[in-house]
Design brief:
Low-confidence stretches: none
Mean pLDDT: 97
Strand order of the largest sheet: 2-10-9-8-5-3-4
CATH class of the largest domain: Alpha Beta
Order of helices and strands: EHHEHEHEEEEEEHEHHHHEHEEH
Largest sheet: 7 strands, mixed
Number of domains: 2
Strand content: 5-15%
Radius of gyration: 21 Å
Shape: globular
CATH topology of the largest domain: Aspartate Aminotransferase, domain 2
Structural class: alpha/beta
Number of strands: 13
Number of helices: 11
Bound molecules: pyridoxal-5'-phosphate
CATH architecture of the largest domain: 3-Layer(aba) Sandwich
CATH superfamily of the largest domain: Type I PLP-dependent aspartate aminotransferase-like (Major domain)
Distance between the termini: 35 Å
Length: 371
């Protein structure tokens, strides 16, 4: 068997040891004679996995005791609507920092949800330039550019824009205003100071596991302040109070998340993971900057993403050739998002330094042959 060199943006590569463990345990989980998928979500076998996944997350991220970890569904996209449903009741306002395609979507869904609830949504700041579909995003705002309105119900930002390749390196201090972050594509790539945030959510399929699960890390008092007059299934409080077992969770997905987190811990936790990620990003941006006549990264240096690296070649025809020649060498997932074009390389935790070394070697060869 020869595994692909998988630079997909999501669903994305998973660490091989996490998959091998799933293969070993698939037919007979913990000596039970059945797979984990076939167990009741209320049984002790599944509950042990569920609680282990939560405990591993708490340990890896050093999550304070006054925060809940919950597993939600519907993808990060559902959170775009669920968050305002919970916190933007009558007359309340949610402020949004817009740095790319995903924060645009978050605003648009929040407007619809807040509209139903009698609340409002504001764009606090946008770094977009140009119009409509042509809008380009090449940086995150400096802390001083982000107005923090003490009256806002929360301030929302997208820590990493998966399509535009811009990422916050530091987070703004928002005082008493709850800071909410969509961390779907850069959750768990390094340590963060969880106490800066009131609510963090991340779809699993970028850096944590398979699609179908969203991990939320939320301060208890913030969750408790949410509305109680919306359907229970949408209330964050209900999921927190029931340890994410209010209804049937995606049990196999949670099991795979457990495997991924156990792997992260086994290799040395987030300090080691961050070292690898910085090494990979350093190699790749080094290759881009080393041939400025051929490769060009549109993102401002201080906002460059460590997870999703975007760049252009001299022409679209060369970009197409680059993607197809890379594919012949088992490298897949290099085509930029259809809305922005170019090349995108996703360097999530499961992508190895060796993969990036192979890619960088290929880039050099390609530039010499076609430059
Ligand atoms: C992928 C992604 C989403 C959407 O995730 P779904 O699971 O498709 O709902 C939202 N935000 C960011 C930053 C993403 O990368």
């Amino acid at each position: 068997m020869s595994r692909a060199i998988n630079f997909n943006a999501g669903p994305a590569a998973l660490p091989l040891p996490a998959l091998e463990r799933a293969r070993e345990e698939l037919l007979d989980f913990a000596g039970s004679g059945m797979s984990v998928m076939e167990h009741s979500h209320r049984g002790k076998e599944y509950e042990a996995v569920h609680n282990e996944a939560i405990a591993l997350l708490r340990e890896l991220l050093a999550i304070p005791d006054d925060y809940d970890v919950t597993f939600l569904q519907g993808g990060a996209t559902q959170q775009f609507a669920q968050l305002p449903m919970n916190f933007l009741g009558n007359g309340k306002t949610g402020d949004y920092v817009v740095t790319g395609a995903w924060s645009e979507k978050a605003v648009s869904e929040a407007k619809a949800a807040a509209g139903m609830a009698g609340g409002a949504v504001r764009t606090a700041v946008s770094t977009g330039t140009g119009d409509g579909k042509e809008k380009s995003y090449t940086r995150v705002p400096a802390a001083a550019e982000i107005p923090v309105d003490p009256g806002a119900a929360y301030l929302h930002l997208t820590s990493n824009e998966t399509i535009h390749g811009v990422e916050f390196q530091d987070f703004p201090a928002t005082g008493a205003v709850p800071l909410v972050a969509d961390m779907s594509s850069d959750f768990l790539w390094r340590r963060i100071e969880v106490s800066k945030f009131a609510f963090i959510y991340a779809g699993a399929q970028k850096n944590i596991g398979p699609s179908g699960i969203v991990v939320a890390v939320a301060r208890k008092d913030f969750v408790a302040s949410g509305r109680k007059d919306i359907p229970k299934i949408f209330q964050y409080r209900v999921h927190a109070e029931n340890n994410s077992l209010y209804n049937t969770p995606p049990t196999f997905g949670v099991y795979l998340v457990r495997n991924v987190l156990a792997w992260q811990k086994s290799v040395g936790g987030l300090d080691q993971i961050e070292r690898w990620n910085r090494e990979k990003a350093g190699l790749l941006y080094g290759a881009i900057d080393g041939r400025p006549d051929f490769f060009r990264c549109p993102v401002e240096r201080a906002s460059r993403s460590v997870m999703n690296v975007v760049f252009r070649l001299p022409s679209e025809a060369l970009e197409e050739k680059f993607v197809s020649e890379a594919k012949k060498r088992r490298m897949i997932g290099l085509k930029g998002h259809r809305s922005v074009g170019g090349i995108r390389v996703s360097l999530y935790n499961a992508a190895t330094v060796e993969w990036v070394t192979v890619l960088v070697g290929f880039m050099d060869e390609f530039a010499r042959a076609n430059g």
